[in-house]
Amino acid sequence: MHDFFYYIQLLLAGITVGSLYALIAIGYTMVYGILRLINFAHGDIFMAAGFFMIFISATTSIYVSLPIVLILTVILGVAVERVAYRPLREAPRMSVMISAIGVSYLLQNFATYYTGGLARPYPVIPFLTREVTIGSMTVKALTIITPVLTVILVVALVLLINRTKIGMAMRAVAKDQNTARLMGIKINNVISVTFVIGSFLAAVGSILYFSNYEQVTPTAGAMPGLKAFVAAVFGGIGSIPGAVLGAYVIGIVETFIKANNDYAIFSNAFTFALLIIILVFRPHGLFGEKLTEKV
Amino acid sequence: MKRYIALFLACFMLVALVTGCSGSSSSSNSSVAPSSSSSSKVIKIGIFEPASGMNGAGGKQETLGIRYAHSVKPKVTIGGVEYTIELVEVDNQSDNSKAGSAAQQLVSEGVSVVLGSYGSGVSIAAGQIFADAKIPAIGASCTNPQVTEGNPYYFRICFLDPFQGTVMANFAYDMGLRKAAVLTEAGDDYSVGLGHYFAQAFEKLGGSVVNVQFQSGETDFSATMASLVSEGIDVLFAPSSIESAPLIIKQARNAGLTCPIMAGDTWENETIITNAGDAAYDVYLSAFFDPNDTSAAAKEFVEGFTEWLKADNTRLTNNGGSTGVAGVSALGYDAYMVALAAIEAAQSTDGTVIRDALVNLKYSGVTGECASFDENGDAAKDMAYIKTIDLETGTFKFLQTQTVS
Amino acid sequence: MSNTILRMEDVTMQFGGVVAVNNLSLEVNEGEIVALIGPNGAGKTTAFNCITGVYEPTNGQIFYRDEILVANYPQGKMKKLYAGENAGKYTKVVKRTPDEITRMGIARTFQNIRLFSSLTALENVLISQHLHINSGMFSATLLSQLPFIKSKARKEEEHMYKRAVELLAEVGLEQYKNEVSGSLPYGIQRRLEIARALATNPNLLLLDEPAAGMNPQETRVLTEFIVEIKDRYKLSIFMIEHHMDVVMSISDRIYVLDFGKLIAHGTREEVQNNQRVIDAYLGVAEDA
Amino acid sequence: MKQKRYLLYSLLLAALIIAALIAIDNSSLKSSMLSTILQKGVIYALLAVSMNLLNGFTGLFSLGQAGFMLLGAYTYAILTIPVEARSAVYQYFDGGLVQFSVPVAVGIIAAGLVAAIFAFLIGLPVLRLKSDYLAIATLGFAEIIRALIQWNTLGPITNGSNILRKFPTFSSILFPFAVSAVSIGLIVLLIRSSYGRAFKAIREDEIAAEAMGINLAKHKMMAFCTSSFFAGVGGAMLAMFQQSVQAKYFTSAMTYEILLIVVIGGIGSVTGSIISSFLFVACSEWWLRFLDAEHYIGNFKVPLLRAGFRMVVFSIVIMVIVLFYRRGIMGTNEFSWQAIERFFKNLFGRKAMIKEREGGGVE
User: Fold this and answer.
1) How far is D59 from chain A (nearest CA, A)?
2) Domains B41-159+313-369 and B161-287+384-402 share a fold
3) Mean pLDDT within A152-165
4) Neighbour count for residue C269 (Cβ, 10 Å)
5) What subunits touch chain A, counting only 3 or more CB pairs under 8 A?
6) How crowded is residue C274: how many other Cβ atoms within 10 Å of its Cβ?
7) For residue B114, is pLDDT > 80?
8) Measured between CB atoms, does C128 come within 8 Å of chain D?
9) Is the ipTM, as predicted for this complex, more than 0.90?
10) Do A276 and D148 touch (CB under 8 A)?
11) Residue of C nearest to D214 (CA)
């Protein structure tokens, strides 16, 4: 009944969604890899980036506001780490996680308060939203740009982590904080850098994401955030290629589920079912390395 | 450091306690200018509307109508004594789990009548509480049958989903459309209910229906739309919240779904036009009210209301930044007026008496026949306004009135 | 040989490519104090973890009395990777979780103290009696505490409590009964950890460096304590220890481990004069 | 004899509370905000304590609470809606499949059991996971349950995404207090039993606990199912309190709400959870509501105050507590008469204090 073109269309949609999840998921996986903390607020930082764009672009041109948004988001991300996570560095993991939930709660409520809870239209970014025609079909430019950009960013990131000094520091901290500290690595700086990168990617993600859906609500970050986290777990938390792979799997499969009218409402449920299954059969995800507790 | 925070917290809690207990009462004259310290007696009318949550936008617009009505008629005479009407507003957060305590707050405030709510779910959830407290409630725009059904204290001045659904079905069928997709939001009584009745009526007429549900908070409809395109439907009926409306419209058009898109009363909100932009062509919806109505009452209301909106910026923002008159505002206005008429008829501030007065009250307001309730307590509204979106002016354009049959 | 309580046969523990314990065979007889010594990283604790079910050995068998406690042979990925000896000699697989093993009568202490640190000394001891509880969750919840209700569960609870207090008294810790265990002095914590292990009433007690970080005075006290509990509770004791004076003063037999391999065993004298041991310990002797 | 005295105190306190409740019940206060808050507060107390049993006492960080509440609420509603009312409730599913209804008590217990059964099924795979993986897995489970219940195909049973109502609810404020009191009492007994001690051991150190012969899988499962059982009961109570129930609102936000109550009260303190439940409910639904409305002092409009501000203030307070008062109100302490007595004695001079020291005394 469906033609080939239809599936191509779905696939494209899935890849776009997947790429967006990927950009968020990397933030999760990096923070988790280093702090062993599920940064529940990550999705809300992503949401905040959306509102930054709206408010800034209202006063100035898109091209000026793009960099500003990136910077603001990074600042927000780092600020959150400073205020909400750093003081709890020595605290049990549960309370750090709770703090993360608290931050997400705060960001959402503040956004609701500030915007009155209404959906705000996202400014049109011409070079992302203009239509391009490939062969027989026309799609938004960002359908093409998103995956490409994602891949570029991921490669850059992997290089950063494997080739540079700071990358080495990150890996060291991820392996063993105390030893890393003894080796003279400034843990806090490394962690800040992690949050800088994470938030930056979240900001990029949010620009692409909201250009696609064209409106922002205070809760817009919650679901993408959770799904991105699932993606990160799926791929093996701490492993960037894993996170990206997971993101694409989730993005594509959930798109196909949504395309099935009878089961459309199970797209989220599926994501989590996948998570549980993965955790049961590979508790450390596809590429995650096992950490055993010393007895 | 810690000690100071402790201090701050303690003070905060204390303040909260003190102001809080008085808070409820101080919140009563909220936003209705400083409480006029007139010595005359006071009768309280509760406003049970969402100011936040997914129905916040509509709730605010409905509240605006009520506030305007209040500014027009702030007083009522009972038994020769002049009573000042005090509006008691609570935010039910468009959340059934919060609705209960919000309603309870109104009850404990000792209101005589309750108006609202936008969004049927909360009204259904809170209905019993009002009934138990013997306080009559007048629903302005809640269209789900269950609101008034089996609740002697709940009345309603707007039409119902079965009616609305049938109307839209007829309208679509008359346009020569035969294959409809009904897209509803899981967990939203309004959406699911209206969709259900539309499908029922449309199939009775001989059309075919594809049912699709999306989960609340969904932002990505591209896949759904793609599948609908390949289904080759003639019309998409998508009753849903103001939030998801623009997403649906835009992504439908992006996916190449060019057929008419239809919905119910909720879509009459200009933020949808703003957010959906020029994708919003061929969009039809049923509405409670037409601002360009030629009847004197309507004219007067529209002019007065627009003036009143312009007078204050917060009012404008609450109206989604525009001066357009939403149907729910008109209904809010009427609901208030009905309540007033009932109070005058009852010549009492007692809920039960007012309720009895409501039962056989006749009142015709700006949205047409608003009282003369049937045994369920629903107004005899036999006509809906079909509107479409006018992209040039970015407003809703009245198309025709449609009745069942 | 019914008087052996623990017997390890060709036990090899391999992590990835690293062989931590290599073909270790040893015996502990009823009523003996046997010491396992060796330089740091020789694989002593790993051996303990194999016995107590924390790790499952890659190859070999461990007997408790006459029944197989744990048994395994290289399978799956390990098949190719396996670098130890006696591959293919064993074909049985027996897996047991640590709690099962404890219930069979083998209790242990940990190198780095692992008390339930925010609970009181008494609670610590009570908890390790839980494994023998008869009453189920419901009767324990409903019948064990309410006054006026006489029930099996109630008796059991009272008995546990009585026993716990006795035990603390026997090991001379009663005055710390209600102290939070994490805040007790180091030496006391060590003692409490042993008491906690005793509360599971074991036949075989594994002590992982009981004297670690103690001064000579404390060490002497501990040494006596170990002998004392061994006699009182009819225990066999298998211990890892660095303090040579402890080892040499109380252990009946000694096994010496180096780089995962057994390099010597025998009585104190035999081991003391064993060249390989001296080499292995050269320069390390005072450490500990 | 000390024990006797405390028992007496407790009985007096209980009598006092009951008397107060009866007074509220038979006065104009019945329909006041106070009684509403008390009712919701006591229900949340049960929910918080049940979550605390898992997160605080067993150290299993589960975020599935909302899911189990949902199961409880729906089980209760589906089973107890009177047959004659069903056609009205299941309006789109011509009356639905279930064509019988059971008494309230049965409904509530069934609610707990269903939740517990699901807990068992989900527990088999996920309880092996470590802290935060467990958290995310249980969170996901709650989402799945919600989607399932809203699924139109199950409509004849669950009424799909439509509201369930018209089931029997309680009229007397005593009812929720009674149920919660009994449930919490049971949880406390469990915590103080040998099994409760085993749970604590697992929280303290899984490896040591296992080495002391505690079967991790078994005991984690016990804690998980018990907690879920009471979450289910709590869900049923919440449904009764709301007089209607709809899957849509049992989101992870609800779980977070209860988690925050537990944190504010003190992870690992039943008393704390109870106290903070009342505070939390009162603040979020009553005392702080005034923050949501614009105020005028004379003609001066108080800044900031407008819809939504309450939640902002609220979340800031929560952050402050999480950051600076990690132990919450009670830490891991419980209410005890000794503590109270000591407090009063301390008011009168040193002598009493010294005497008390000799007495020692646990908190």
Assistant:
1) 9
2) yes
3) 90
4) 10
5) B, C, D
6) 18
7) yes
8) yes
9) no
10) no
11) C99
Put simply, the answer to whether C123 touches D192 (Cβ < 8 Å) is no
Q: What are phi and psi of C232, to 5 degrees?
A: -65, -40
| C with B: touching (≥3 Cβ pairs within 8 Å) | no
From first to last of the 288 residues of chain C, give the pLDDT tens digit: 458 999 999 999 998 888 899 999 999 999 999 999 988 888 899 999 999 999 999 999 999 998 999 999 998 888 888 888 888 888 889 999 999 999 999 999 998 899 999 999 999 999 999 998 888 888 888 888 877 778 888 889 999 999 999 999 999 998 998 999 999 998 899 999 999 999 998 999 999 999 888 888 889 999 999 999 999 999 999 999 988 888 989 999 999 998 889 988 899 888 888 888 888 776 544 444
The DSSP secondary-structure symbol of B279 reads: G
Which chain C residues are Cβ-neighbours of A295 within 8 angstroms? 45, 49, 54, 110
Structure tokens at C150: 């006489």
Which residues of chain B have a CB within 8 Å of the CB of A17? 220
C51, C96, C114, C143, best to mutate vs chain D, most D CBs in 10 Å: C114
Measure the N-to-C terminal CA separation of chain B; round to a whole number of Å.
73
Pairing state of beta strands C253-258 and C33-37? parallel
DSSP state of A123: P
Q: Which two tokens stand for residue B283?
A: 């969009």
Q: Identify the CATH class of C115-200.
A: alpha beta
Cβ-Cβ contacts under 8 Å, B57 against chain A: 117-118
| Rounded CA separation C233/C255 (Å) | 24
Which residues from D are below 8 Å from B107, CB to CB? Answer: 31
D4 touches chain C (CB under 8 A): no
Q: Domain ranges in chain D?
A: 15-21+32-290, 334-363
For chain B, say whether D285 makes contact (Cβ under 8 Å): yes
Cα dihedral A266, A268, A271, A275 sign:
negative
* Chain B residues in contact with A20 (beta carbon < 8 A): none
Q: How far is D342 from B356, CA to CA, in rounded Å?
A: 61
Residue C29 CA to residue C4 CA, distance in Å, equals: 4
Domain C1-105+202-288 in this protein, CATH class:
alpha beta
Determine whether the interchain pair A259/B224 forms a contact, defined as Cβ–Cβ distance below 8 Å: yes
Among D residues 128-187, those touching chain C with beta carbons less than 8 Å apart: 186
pLDDT in tens, A19-69: 999 988 888 888 888 888 888 899 999 999 999 999 999 888 888 999 999
Put simply, whether D243 touches B (Cβ < 8 Å) is yes
**Band of the pLDDT at D354, cuts 50, 70, 90?**
low
Tokens read off for D12:
């007096």
The pTM of the whole model exceeds 0.90: no
Interchain CB distance below 8 Å, B56 and A255: no
Q: In chain D, positions 97-136, which contact chain B (CB-CB < 8 Å)?
A: none
Name the nearest CA neighbour of D188 among D278, D269, D105.
D269
Let me know: does B130 contact B107? Beta carbons within 8 Å: yes
Average pLDDT over residues D67-84: 95
Q: At residue B267, does pLDDT exceed 60? A: yes
Distance CA C275, CA C281 (A): 10
CATH of domain B41-159+313-369: 3.40.50.2300
Cα-based distances in Å from B182 to A89, B192, D8: 51, 9, 65
**Do residue D61 and residue A94 have CB atoms under 8 angstroms apart?**
yes
Hey, what amino acid is at D356? E
Q: How far is C144 from chain D (nearest CA, A)?
A: 7
For residue A69, give both structure tokens: 């948004």
Q: Residue ranges of the domains in chain B?
A: 41-159+313-369, 161-287+384-402
Structural domain B161-287+384-402, CATH architecture = 3-Layer(aba) Sandwich (3.40)
Q: What does the longest C-alpha to C-alpha distance in chain A come to?
A: 65
Give the model's pLDDT for residue A50: 94
